[in-house]
Known about the structure:
The structure holds five protein chains of five kinds. By secondary structure, chain C is mainly α. Chain C has helices spanning 2-21, 29-56, 89-108, 116-135, 139-160, 165-194, 199-204, 209-226, 235-242, 245-270, 272-298, 303-324, 327-358, 369-372, 374-387, 394-407, 412-423, 425-440, 456-474, 476-495, and strands at residues 68-76, 81-87. A two-stranded antiparallel ribbon of chain C has the order 1-2. In chain C, a hairpin with a 4-residue loop joins β1 and β2. Chain C starts with a helix and ends with a helix. The model of chain C has no long low-confidence stretch (mean pLDDT 90). Chain E is mainly alpha-helical. Chain E folds into two domains: 1-84, Four Helix Bundle (Hemerythrin (Met), subunit A); 130-173. Chain E is 74% helix and 0% strand. The chains are: A mainly alpha, B mainly alpha, C mainly alpha, D mainly alpha, E mainly alpha. Chains in contact: A-B, A-C, A-D, A-E, B-D, B-E, C-D, D-E.
Amino acid sequence: MNNLISHSYLILLFPLLSFVINGLFLCFKHRKAAAILSTSLSGLGAIFAIFLVVQFFISGAKPLTAWEFEFLSFSGNLIATIGCLLDSLSAMMVLTVSLIAFVVHIYSIGYMQDDLSSGRFFALLSLFVFSMLGLVIATNIFQTFIFWELVGVSSYLLIGFWYNKPSAVAASKQAFILTRFADSFFLLGIILLSYIAKSFVFSDINSLRLENFAGQMISLGIIEIPTNDALVLSTLLIFIGGWGKSAMFPLHIWLPNAMEGPTPVSSIIHSATMVVAGVYLVARLFPLFAISGNVLEIVMIVGTITMLFAAIIACTQKDIKRILAYSTLSQLGYMMLALGSARLTDGSVHTLGYTAATFHIFTHAFFKCMLFLIAGALIHQVHTNDLEAMGGLRKKMPWTYAASLIACLAIAGIPPFSGFYSKDEILITAYQAGHPIIFACALFTSFLTAFYMFRLFFLAFHGKMRSAPKHPVHESLLMTLPILLLVIPTIFAGFSFKNIFHHFFTPENITAISHNIPDVSFIPPLAICCAVLGIIFSYILYASPKANLAKALDSDNRNTFYKTIYNKFYFDEIYYTFVRQFILGGLASFARFLEEKIIGSLVNFFSTIIHKAGSLVRSAHCGYIPFYIGVMILGVLFWYFASNLPLQGA
Amino acid sequence: MTLLHCLILAFILFTIGIFGVLTNRHLIGMLISIEIMLNAANINFVAFAYFKAQDPTAGTLFSIFSIAITACEMAVALAILIAMYRKHHSLDVNTQEINHE
Amino acid sequence: MFEKVLLNLLWILPFLTVLFSIPIKENSPRLKRFHLASAGIVLLSSIYLLVRVFQNTVSNTSSQFQLLFETKFNWLNAISANYFIGIDALSSMMLVLAAIIIFTGILATWRLEKNQKIFFGFFQILAASVYGVFISFDLVLFFVFYEMEALCMYLLIAGFGSGNKDYGAKKLTLTLAIGSSMILAVFLGIYAETGTWNLLKLSDIVLPENFQFWAFPILFLGFAVSSSLFPFHFWSPAGHSAAPTAVSMFAAGVMMKMGAYGCLRIAIYLMPEGAKIWLPYLLLLIAFNVIVGPFIAMRHKDLKFITAYSSISHLGLIFLGLAAMTPIAFRGAALQMVSHGFLTGLFFATIGMIYSRTHTRDITQMSGLMKAIPFIGVGFVIAGFAGLGLPGLSGFVAEATIFVGSFENPSPLCRVITILAILSITATAIYILRCANKMLHGPLNIPKESLPQAYFEEKCIIVFYIVCLLILGIFPAPFAEFLDTSIFPIYSNLMR
Amino acid sequence: MIAIIPDILLLLFPFLMLAFKLFLTQAQTAHKNFAFAYLFILLICQNFVLIGDTQVYFSNWQIDTFGIFMREIFTLSALLALLLSENYFKHSMSEKPKLFHFSEFAASIGFATFGGVVVVSANDLLTLFLGLELATIPMYALVAWNKRDSEGTEAAIKYILMGSVATAFELFGFSYLYGFAGHLTFPEIAQALQTNQASPLIWISVLFIISGIGFKMTLFPFHLWAPDVYEGAPTPVTAILSVTSKSIAIAFLTVLVFGPLNAIHQEIVPFLALLAGITLLAGNLGALSQSKLRRFMAFSSISQAGYILIALLGNSPEGKYAIIYYLFLYTFSNYLAFFIFSTISKDQSETFISLNGLSEKSKFLAIALLIALMSLAGIPPLAGFFGKLQIFTAAAENKHYFLILFAVLNNVLALYYYIQVLKSAWIDKPAKEIALSVSTKQKTIILILTLSVLLLGFLPFLSNNLSIALL
Amino acid sequence: MILNIPFSDIVFYFVAVFMVLLSIAAVSSKNVLRSAIFLIASFLGTAILYLLLKAEFMAMAQIMLYVGGVVVFIIFAILLTSHLGENKLSTPISQKFLAVFLALTLLGVMAKFLFNTKELSESITQKSPEASSLIAYGERLLSYAPNGFVLPFEIISILLFMTLVVAITIAKKDNKEEK
């Protein structure tokens, strides 16, 4: 069995192979072949991942570096390697990513069958899977960054997959630039951290102790700060990377816009895997965060704000994929909140948040991916994203309907579906952390989640068809099968894996101190109540026979508050204004002004001066002999004084 | 009569020559001024030869040679002047055709 | 012995090619093939030499200068200048870069319709000049090769370029001439102080501190002119926008590196004291390149202007690496020289291909080209990704090394500029994506018939560069360690 | 005894020319060919004269290595000038009427060349002065050689009037020098300088002598005549003015500065440095936007004079070596340019515009022009660069770094205006097509000159031979 | 007091004033022929000065070569070219003013320089009479000694010959050429 771990390079090799073969040979002419190759390789990958992970957990889940080679050595210990770190966290992620990738591949065959460039799609999808797997098995933060960027670029390429569509192109650009903006801080953080820690390797970084740097100072240019603070700063900078990738408020705007991409892409990249990379990063560096001052509090606050903010917006949106996107944001907020609230008010750290967050990553991946696939199936049938145009699909797509009910119950947090367990853990963490307001927010968001999810559910499946579909609506096997496949983990991942997570998912180097644990037994019922309340509320508004759907869906004749929410708090506008006015109009224009008006005119000024001097010299050649001779005489006089010969005698 | 006086005299003549060259519009007038300048240089030589030099003969001989050279220069100059006169029928300094930008 | 002959042939062969191409019929296919074959031979020999040097250099961190395959004999006895050529790690890498760019440059000009003899002839002389620069270890010889390009640059740009070509050509040639003048003045000073032009001998001699103080900035800035360091960068947009594709590739890909190469190999190597005094202040100039460059690129619409400013900012990173004066940063600078050569070559090659089809370089007038010419579009995008430092392509390796290295320099200014430089990579992303999106994506606005698919030779160029970018991007470690053998002597000279 | 034979042969040359004119009136072509052959053979003879130490003939006729190489330059220049002038005697040009009296023309050039020989062989002030005059007076006449061309006459008038004023200054300078030293011979002057250094008389004489010779060498601000005269004179004369006249002037200065005045070399040097700097700047600025080729070459040669002067800042053997090396390469480059200009001057005036389309009409000429001008601009690997390099090296030995920096930066300006010419020849399209007829002979000469400019700098044999002899 | 001044000095100053005035007249006269005459007079004054400086040979040469040769040459040229001073050319007054200014500045600078040069006012060495004898000149002129003048003598003859050739070529009216 040890063989499997020693062959763990296959994790990366399958998708890479698929990418290379598809990208080089199949992508233009043989799109069918590309789809089959890609899917079968990802299937192999998923099977391998299952066996690997099972073997890993059976063998005790001891963290180990399966393989490693040197990528670039900087100096001494500072060696960037590419390797495979297997521990419970990465094993979980490998499993999740591989499974979802496989499912989404199958789904894509159906979803993309009419698209002529689907060969390219599969190539890029494989690139993404490769990068994502590379990211999760990273042994060191430099490798994380490498694959972090690669997932970013594959996300960019996939969002802009339909590059003829201007909105998709704009969205892809926005997504890339915003994450890139965050990544530049990430890189800075890595460099600062590696400068302090003299290593990139996670195990070294995670075993850093502030005491070791007591009294040392480090210069950051203008200011000089204690190394301890610099370490905290670097942690914060690294978190900013995760902030952008996980689309935390206020860098969140790219994620809803990224829904312009094909739906399989949204499901794998923008809900299940890539966007949790930020959470994964925090989890991966949890010991570092734990010692780094108030960074965890920042993580918590950012998570809470995003969670609430996104949920509020989700309640008003009509684009089915955007609702899911905001829901993703909200769930990511939950995870961040869980990680961030690991520190208790008395300063001690407990590990429940870590467990809860990783658990939620796991469960969320399945049900959210499924929801996206469902949304894709709907869109594929009705050819619109707009909920206003859907409705009454229950009859036409019974399997999809059933699956989506399960998914919605899961995300709403109704037992026994998986979402309940993980969300429950998060609520408990928030409560334990001793921040009542945050706990209240989380609870309220849980209500909102149930509300908007069922709003979506009711609007899409219940009621009457609000528009006539161009083609007859039916469920294709290739698209329904993946959805049904995902039902299994959505139902079982919660209670069956709960104990595994509690057992294996504790961060290294953290000795959990759990004293004065408050009574938390009231939380699960409370959470269920909230969720149920949300479902009822949305039923009344959108599905009950009395519901006035026209009014409920109307977005024009609403009060300012609703409109503000409907327009996502105008963050898109703020972003565009910022980019246009400040970056392009301000900084870039100033730079160009500097370049053209100042440097350019200096250059022109010099050349003018030289030309002027030239015409001055030429004007002396007037042809008038007495003038020439006069200049000669003057010249003698001139040199008499200017020649610095000692003419005046010693 | 000292060396200094002779040198000053020579230089006064030289400056008079310069003045002439600068103000005369007639080309032959300019040549005459140049003659005065060259002559002044000869005075210098002779004065130095008389008052100061260890090798007085050389200085005097130099000025004789210089007279000969002056003659040569004048001959060529006058030849050119005559050629020019044939073309322009004028010896005015201001007559000129070379185009200056 | 074979390597020695090969090394000498590197610069002689282009000249011979020009000589033997005189009787070939003008504008005939044979002429092109002849030049291509010659460039190919040079390319193969340079790769062979790289391999041989790689085999023969001892990977260690000693300060010993590992010069291989040297040829040395007396040349101009009056000023005791020698013909002294050799090769070491850095120069072998640069040689391969140059050979690739020359080879692809000839391919990129494959469809030139008239005056081929002149174009290829001058282009071969350019080639000879860069090969010479990278292998000569005698200052006079170095300068002869360094300045030789002025001979051909003007005519190549003004005769075969586009747009405001005379202006651009003059600006480029003259500004570069200012730089080389400064270099020559300092070389003469060095000779007067020491009595030798031999780089290796000179490195053992400590030049007087006062001399270093005055000479270093002149020499450094002189070299920096050709690498378009602020405020001497103004030639680059004008020159690149006017130049024909192959010359743009050459200028941005190799010529701009010659300056940085000189800064490292000569300025910093020979005048460590001056470097220590001045480089911290020169960082202020570098900051402009790195930070302001991308922002200017954002405001331009002309592809070549954008690329020119992109080159300016990337070369700023090279200088950041040099100015940081740590071995890692030096190595990063060296890597960036090679890496930027490849990516900018690809950039200009694809721009040339696009321009030859659309007859415009204004990105707002093009749209959806990816649909019509996907191969070229992909080439451009990959060049762009390499430019914005995507891992897996060489740009990332170089930039990360520079950042890690320059952060090791504890001086406040260096820290600030490193931090700003890291943050400014976002700006790079903005202009590159803006460019790609405007031009390649969106609906196609040009009739598809006027946009022929990439020709075979164009595909070759693109694939060639992508392979280079990938090799260096995925397996940087051997190259980095290889380059260290050239970097350490310089660094140890700095620390003595 | 052998060293003096070439001098005697050279002196015979003008007389033979005149004799030809008198006795063999019919054999025109043979006459010309004889002149070329004679000078060529003379050049070879001079080349074989190798002496180690300075030799003295007829009490004062001093032949040293420097002198021998200068003789070669003068003879080479005379030969090339005669070759260049051949076409101008055959038919009239668009700007200038046909030239007449080849024998007298050749004789005058012969005399002027001999004047140069006198300058480098002089051992006393008087001989030096006579040599200079012997070299200058025929030049006055040569400028006015074309009687039917009023521009030439006018230029000659300017030249001779100003030249005479310069001669007056020079004479004054000599008189003060004589007054200071009390002797005319160089060794005695040098000795006087050794024993009695601080006299202001020596400085004023240096000032006046340099002012006087500055006229001939076109140093600032005594250079004003050059563009007018260069433009007015027939092209071969312009060429010889820019090479022979300038070489003789620099030889004159070299003989003085490294000869009797060597003791005060260090004191003169700052003056020379200033003079060189300003001269080359003035020349370069003046040349910036010219449209006539000969006028342009005048400014170009003004700045070249500035460069040559820099060599005098060095020490004796290196400085002399640099001057000779530079002059050799300068002669080739300059004549190459003039030969190319002469090919277009048959049907067109010698302006930038007439060069238009040269690259279409004849790639060979266009490349030759490129090589000539880039060599003058000092771009490696062409000859001009190596000339400048030697000059700068000589100056750098005495640590004139600032001047060198200034001079090399001026090179950029020079490059600018040479590029302007190249632009006319390579880039600009002609308004109307005018056919270009170049004879095989001209082509051969241009080819030889081009190859010399290409190779003489880069290949070490010229430089090494010179350095073996001189250093 | 005044009696202490030697006779030669009185003559010197007299001749000096005379020369200066004549030279000024020569350069400022509008009529070129008159200028030439003044020039002759000035040259005669120079000859007297040479006599005072014990350079009799030089005085003789001055009269023979300059007055008899060069100036006559000039007069010939004047007679050949002008219509006996009919066309009077005048220069603008500003140019004259500038010329005076320039000339006086130069004079002032040089005078200051010469007065400041000590060795000039100090040196009153009289030369030995035999040095200025005609024989001495002749011997020096034809001497092959290191300080002999035989070589310049030869060269000046070449120079004169050359001048003849070129002057004739330039000045002669050539029928063949004119057509």
